[in-house]
Amino acid sequence: MGMIKEFKEFAFKGNVIDLAVGVIIGAAFGAIISSAVDDVITPLILTPVMEASGVANLEQLAWNGVKYGNFISAIIKFILIAIVLFFLIKGANKLNKKEEAAPAGPSNEEVLLTEIRDILKNK
């Protein structure tokens, strides 16, 4: 029973649940980026290259058996995901940025010791 309790504590910690949610959202985001690249960006940007090569879609773009069309698509996807994540993390860091604490004034003990020092100096 001890191992089941340990597993339950591990599985339901906030970090594990946050990780699971992050993976699910990441997969959905990856699908959105894939669609954006495959259905919007690729036809707009690479249409002249594909027409010159006589290819209907990017997956067919190849040279001596090397499918560089898929590679170009993967690079575009990576760049888009990296840019979006950069801006998300940058925004999250701004929200989580803690204001630097102003230096605290002297404590009551320091004030009293300063007064005692000044009184002793004047004598």
Features:
mainly alpha; 4 helices; 123 residues
3D structure, described in words:
The structure is a single chain. The protein has 123 residues and is mainly α. It has helices spanning 2-11, 14-53, 68-96, 108-122. α2 (14-53) packs antiparallel against α3 (68-96). The mean pLDDT is 80.
In short:
With 123 residues, this protein is an all-alpha fold. 76% of the residues lie in helices and 0% in strands.
Write the layout of secondary structure elements.
Blueprint (H helix, E strand, L loop, with lengths): L1 H10 L2 H40 L14 H29 L11 H15 L1
What percent of residues adopt helix (DSSP H or I)? over 70%
What is the element string, with H for helices and E for strands?
Answer: HHHH
The largest sheet, given as strand count, sense and whether it forms a barrel, is: none
Q: Tell me the Rg in angstroms.
A: 30 Å
